[in-house]
Write a sequence for this structure.
């Protein structure tokens, strides 16, 4: 499966319910945010020095679109990925 | 005639040495092998400004020499990179301060004596996959390297150097994912999430505030962030950890029962608005508040511990509290990296992470 996103932020591999999501961050941002569609469901994680972050997929139904973002202002990068049912 | 010949020979040898091309990698540990991280390049995929501050301990071999080119090497990865073309403006300067005194404002790190060493298009070469992982040998070959040949040399006179790169992709020739080698510092601070969050944000655990342990370093800008209602006001409080949670309602707030103050004292407060993204399509992500504390590069703060908790005004809700400690030592990387959009005066500063750079000099 080709990575989703690019331009400094991407998701590698499928995103499956109950699994792990791999987020690669090319920028020097220190926090990556994962939102299950609304601000209320946004959770933040520190970016590891190696830049490939293996994080738990949020507990959402299959078909939910996750908004993943880093940065702020004009330098914000966003990637959308769909959570797949196992 | 013999002494004359010896003198002439020595002069020629000296001249040749002064003119010889040398390459110098910063940091030296990554001269031949892949370092432990990676980073994007200004202009490869999007408009970006990147500024490196390099400490003089990395540059002693270059004192008195003319820097004539700058190179970035790809990171080791089992992935071929597509090529591209970007337009760069590169300025070098003797910086007014070292990496651990770096500013988050671009102009402050350049000082007054910057030299425009290059302006024009630079190619990102198509690059075949390599063996993957830190420590793998990666050569400084044409297909692995982005090279900026200076049109104006920069004579290095000692002290810290600022390398300022402003870039944008040439239309239709962006390289979506071309990652350069980068190195991180093992020194790190510490964080412990104490809970206490409430309100409508942060998912089930109500974790709507965060701080990265990699910003809790002497010389860094510790970055405290929170997510909440757009354009609401956040109060970021710093103090000592409370021995037990204090219900916020007990203090007269009209707050949900689950809201707890986790601070025994408040030593400082900073106020920040929850700013939504300017792009209307992203405004449902709410507002993003951030405050930064400059951590002095002073042994007096090594290991210092505080607790931080946010209060969001419209809900009168507390965030999860985070107890944090500054690292017990200063970073040894000797470099800083500031990244931001070219239209913005300031950006994201890190002193634990920087690209691997190679200078060519004569």
């Amino acid at each position: 499966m080709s990575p989703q996103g690019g331009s400094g932020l991407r998701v590698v591999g499928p995103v499956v319910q109950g699994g792990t999501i791999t987020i690669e961050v090319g920028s020097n941002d220190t926090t990556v945010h994962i939102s299950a569609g609304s601000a209320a469901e946004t959770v933040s994680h520190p970016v590891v020095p190696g830049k490939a972050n293996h994080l738990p997929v949020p507990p959402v139904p299959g078909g939910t679109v996750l908004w993943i973002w880093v940065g702020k202002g004009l330098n914000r990068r966003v990637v959308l990925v769909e959570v797949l049912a196992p | 005639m013999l002494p004359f010949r010896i003198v002439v020979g020595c002069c020629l040898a000296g001249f040749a040495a002064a003119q010889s091309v040398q390459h110098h990698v910063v940091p030296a540990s990554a001269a031949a092998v892949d370092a432990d991280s990676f980073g994007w390049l200004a202009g490869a995929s999007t408009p970006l400004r990147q500024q490196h501050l390099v400490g003089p301990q990395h540059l002693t071999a270059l004192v008195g020499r003319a820097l004539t080119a700058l190179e970035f090497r790809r990171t080791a990865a089992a992935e071929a990179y597509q090529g591209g073309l970007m337009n760069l403006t590169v300025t070098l300067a003797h910086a007014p301060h070292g990496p651990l005194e770096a500013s988050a404002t671009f102009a402050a790190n350049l000082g007054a004596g910057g030299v425009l060493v290059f302006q024009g298009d630079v190619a990102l070469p198509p690059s075949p996959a390599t063996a993957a992982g830190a420590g793998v040998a990666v050569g400084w070959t044409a297909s692995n390297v982005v090279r900026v040949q200076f049109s104006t040399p920069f004579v290095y006179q000692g002290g810290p150097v600022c390398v300022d790169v402003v870039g944008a992709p040439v239309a239709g020739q962006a390289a979506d994912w071309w990652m350069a080698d980068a190195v991180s510092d093992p020194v790190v601070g510490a964080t412990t999430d104490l809970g206490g969050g409430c309100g409508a944000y942060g998912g089930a655990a109500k974790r709507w505030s965060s701080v990265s342990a990699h910003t809790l370093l002497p010389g860094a800008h510790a970055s405290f962030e929170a997510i909440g209602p757009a354009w609401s006001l956040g109060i970021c409080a710093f103090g000592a950890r409370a021995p037990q949670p204090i219900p916020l309602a007990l203090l007269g707030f009209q707050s949900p029962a689950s809201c707890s103050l986790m601070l025994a004292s408040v030593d400082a407060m900073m106020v920040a608005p929850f700013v939504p993204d300017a792009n209307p399509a992203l405004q449902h992500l709410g507002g993003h508040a951030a405050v930064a504390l400059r951590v002095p590069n002073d042994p007096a703060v090594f290991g210092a511990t505080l607790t931080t908790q946010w209060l969001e005004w419209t809900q009168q809700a507390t965030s999860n509290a985070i107890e944090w400690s500054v690292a017990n030592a200063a970073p040894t990387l000797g470099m800083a990296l500031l990244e931001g959009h070219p239209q913005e005066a300031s950006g994201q500063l890190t002193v634990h992470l920087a690209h691997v750079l190679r200078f060519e000099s004569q």
